[in-house]
């Protein structure tokens, strides 16, 4: 074995040996500390160590996923903390307003000592939209809006490539948008942040396009799993959100699960100790499904959720088109959207006599949703319906204008409030069933987002993880199935493709080898008589022989009967007008001695390639155990016929499936 230059791993081992021999404790060699490493160089060094250790594929992916999980966990932590800072020193400082939070979320900072000034919320939101819009459209225009579409598009159409600046811009812009009261969620930003981290790490480690896509999806799942404290749901979300039909990117599940668990472990360290391992909406949400008769009002809930989902997507897209047509620079659009959303929020506040729960139409809105999940009757059906409908408008204004925020959080609020309102109505209409409006809120959350995001399984698991409630799986499956089937034309993530067969990322994966399993022995006819020519036969004899024969290719054999060459009737025709050499030339002068052939055990793919490479119509079939023994001739048209027959069988099997 030849010596190779030492890699980073070998330098490390050498340093350990030197230090150990000197009686020192085991440590990295001095060469690694000669200068400080940049982040890019550190990632490159890690990649070199992984290569040097020659870790097999599964081990590599464990290390890659862990690295993505750590980075995504740090990104989620930074996003969460920055959002809290923005809330405290914008809405809290100037408007005296701190949005209520879910039970599992606790503010990191004490409330500001500022009286409540509602109209300052509009001012703060407008300025927040201006800052966010300027930052996004100046540095990374692809980071506008929800963020999920950008990550999905990068997976399918951009070889897993997201610019390195995008996660940083998205983190800051989203923290500003949501922290100043813009209506949106955390899932879209953190999905793009995690995806960008995975893409950047894949590029730095010089991974293939496929592997970079996997790391992108793993980062997306890690971010979502961390911020919502639902690692398994984050992993399934990463595999399911890429497609609009019932399909799953199976290759990303294990890397995404690993990265998501690591990211969750990192993220929880920034939370207060008392809420570190709480589910987002607490641990007191326990409901049961007692009788199949309850499925009747749940079907009514499905109808309401379907209508709300269609309205949500239609309004969201209409607002996006309207803002794109505005004759102003893109940087200003999020400010206008935020200002309009703020005015709508003020209308809700004063419409409900200053009840701050109505301000769930702004920001993330989890505080009012928390009360809805625990005491829906205290909020009331009227306010719940109003919040659900107006939240659609404020979210469309905030994100449709280019503001940076996600669509999952608003979907939870819309679906939860709509579900609780429907539950309150059915509670009055059907008192004998013992309907719990809070249970309808839980099911409404899952059903709403499953329909418009085209991700039923991960949404069910996500809602279960957010609420800790596993007693409603039957009605949840019913409602999510109905909404998923019905809302096929209305989806929030326009960059989704129906299935893996429609994705450029899998171009070539689904080309069916219709000749797989077919061998030459299955096609060529052994009993077909083939005229063979002795190598010493004169050209004169060959010409007269061809006159009474319709064979096109003529194998040439020696005295022992072994095939030594081949010629075609076209080769002979070139001598027809030169009869002076007919008695001088023999078959060995006409034949091609360097010929291609096949054996009975070759597959038809091999035969077809040889037909096309030499533009031949027939190939000699030789016995592999007896060199030169001709078994017959394989015709090109027979191979094409076998191909067409197998293709028809595949089509028929697909039609019957």
UniProtKB/TrEMBL annotation:
Keywords: CBS domain, Chloride, Chloride channel, Ion channel, Ion transport, Membrane, Transmembrane, Transmembrane helix, Transport
InterPro entries, per the entry: CBS_dom, CBS_dom_sf, Cl-channel_core, ClC, ClC-type_chloride_channel
Subcellular location: Membrane
Membrane topology category: Multi-pass membrane protein
Domain CBS, residue spans: 526-584, 591-649
Chief location category: membrane
GO cellular component: chloride channel complex
PROSITE patterns, sorted: CBS (PS51371)
CDD domains: CBS_pair_voltage-gated_CLC_bac (cd04613), Voltage_gated_ClC (cd00400)
SMART domains associated with the record: CBS (SM00116)
Single GO MF annotation: chloride channel activity
Official protein name in the record: H(+)/Cl(-) exchange transporter ClcA
Regions crossing the membrane: 61-82, 119-140, 214-238, 295-314, 335-352, 372-393, 405-427, 439-463, 470-492
């Amino acid at each position: 074995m030849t010596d190779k230059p030492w890699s980073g791993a070998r330098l490390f081992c050498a340093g350990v040996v030197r230090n150990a021999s000197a009686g020192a404790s085991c440590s990295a060699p001095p060469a690694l500390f000669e200068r400080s490493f940049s982040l890019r160089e550190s990632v490159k060094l890690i990649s070199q160590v992984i290569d040097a250790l020659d870790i097999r594929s599964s081990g590599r992916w464990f290390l890659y996923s862990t690295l993505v999980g750590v980075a995504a966990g740090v990104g989620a932590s930074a996003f969460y903390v920055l959002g809290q800072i923005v809330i405290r020193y914008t809405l809290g400082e100037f408007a005296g307003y701190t949005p209520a939070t879910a039970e599992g979320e606790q503010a990191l900072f004490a409330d500001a000592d500022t009286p409540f000034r509602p109209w300052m919320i509009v001012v703060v939101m407008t300025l927040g939209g201006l800052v966010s819009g300027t930052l996004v459209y100046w540095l990374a225009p692809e980071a506008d809006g929800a963020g999920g579409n950008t990550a999905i598009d990068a997976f399918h159409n951009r070889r897993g490539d997201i610019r390195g600046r995008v996660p940083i811009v998205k983190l800051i812009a989203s923290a500003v948008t949501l922290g100043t009261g813009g209506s949106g969620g955390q899932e879209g930003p953190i999905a793009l942040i995690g995806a960008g981290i995975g893409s950047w790490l894949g590029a730095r480690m010089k991974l293939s396009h496929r592997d970079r896509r996997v790391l992108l999806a793993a980062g997306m799942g890690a971010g979502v799993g961390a911020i919502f404290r639902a690692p398994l749901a984050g992993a399934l979300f990463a595999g399911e959100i890429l497609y609009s039909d019932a399909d799953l990117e199976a290759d990303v599940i294990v890397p995404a699960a690993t990265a998501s668990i690591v990211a969750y472990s990192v993220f929880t360290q920034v939370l207060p100790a008392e809420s570190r391992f709480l589910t987002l909406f607490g641990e007191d949400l326990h409901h049961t499904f007692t009788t199949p008769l309850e499925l009747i009002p749940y079907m009514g809930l499905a109808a309401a959720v379907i209508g709300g989902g269609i309205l949500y997507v239609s309004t969201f897209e209409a607002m996006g088109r309207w803002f794109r047509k505005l004759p102003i620079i893109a940087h200003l659009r999020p400010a206008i959207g935020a200002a309009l959303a703020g005015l709508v929020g003020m209308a809700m506040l004063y419409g409900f006599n200053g009840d701050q729960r109505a301000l769930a139409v702004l920001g993330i809105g989890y505080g009012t949703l928390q009360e809805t999940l625990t005491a829906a009757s205290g909020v009331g059906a009227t306010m719940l319906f109003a919040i659900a409908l107006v939240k659609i408008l404020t979210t469309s204004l905030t994100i449709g204008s280019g503001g940076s925020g996600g669509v999952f959080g608003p979907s939870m609020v819309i679906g939860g409030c709509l579900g609780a309102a429907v539950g309150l109505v059915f509670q009055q209409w059907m008192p004998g069933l013992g309907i719990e409006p809070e249970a309808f809120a839980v099911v409404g959350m899952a059903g709403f987002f499953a329909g418009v995001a085209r991700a039923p399984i991960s949404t069910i698991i996500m809602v279960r993880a957010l609420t800790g409630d596993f007693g409603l799986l039957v009605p949840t499956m019913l409602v999510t199935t109905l909404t998923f089937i019905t809302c096929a034309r209305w989806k929030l993530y326009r960059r989704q493709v129906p299935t893996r067969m429609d994705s450029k990322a899998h171009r070539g994966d689904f080309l069916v080898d219709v000749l797989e399993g077919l061998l030459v022995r299955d096609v060529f006819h052994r009993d077909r008589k083939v005229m063979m020519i002795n190598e010493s036969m004169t050209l004169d004899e060959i010409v007269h022989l061809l006159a009474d024969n319709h064979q096109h290719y003529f194998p040439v054999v020696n005295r022992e009967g072994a095939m030594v060459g081949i010629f075609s009737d076209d080769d002979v025709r070139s001598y027809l007008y030169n009869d002076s050499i007919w008695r001088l030339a023999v078959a060995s002068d006409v034949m091609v001695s360097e010929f291609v052939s096949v054996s009975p055990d070759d597959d038809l793919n091999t035969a077809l390639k040889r037909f096309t490479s030499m533009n031949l119509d027939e190939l000699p079939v030789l016995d592999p155990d007896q060199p030169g023994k001709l078994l017959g001739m394989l015709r090109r048209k027979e191979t094409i016929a076998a191909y067409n027959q197998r293709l028809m069988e595949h089509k028929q099997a697909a039609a019957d499936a």
